[in-house]
Write a structure and sequence with these properties.
single chain; mainly alpha; 51 residues; 25% helix
């Protein structure tokens, strides 16, 4: 990666160490259900509003 354009970084991203089974289950639940909650997210813009 030599060009600034090639740099890929996810803004507001952070790592999390999974320390125990309840933590793992909470993260699994988030991954499985997050997309279903997308339309209620404060950053959601409906496709019709993007025209």
């Amino acid at each position: 990666m030599t060009d600034e354009q090639d740099v890929v970084w996810q803004r507001n991203y952070h790592d999390h160490i999974i320390r125990n089974l309840p933590d793992l289950n909470r993260i699994r639940d988030y991954v499985q259900t997050n997309s279903a909650r997308w339309e209620t997210d404060t950053f959601y813009e409906s496709p019709s509003s993007l025209k």
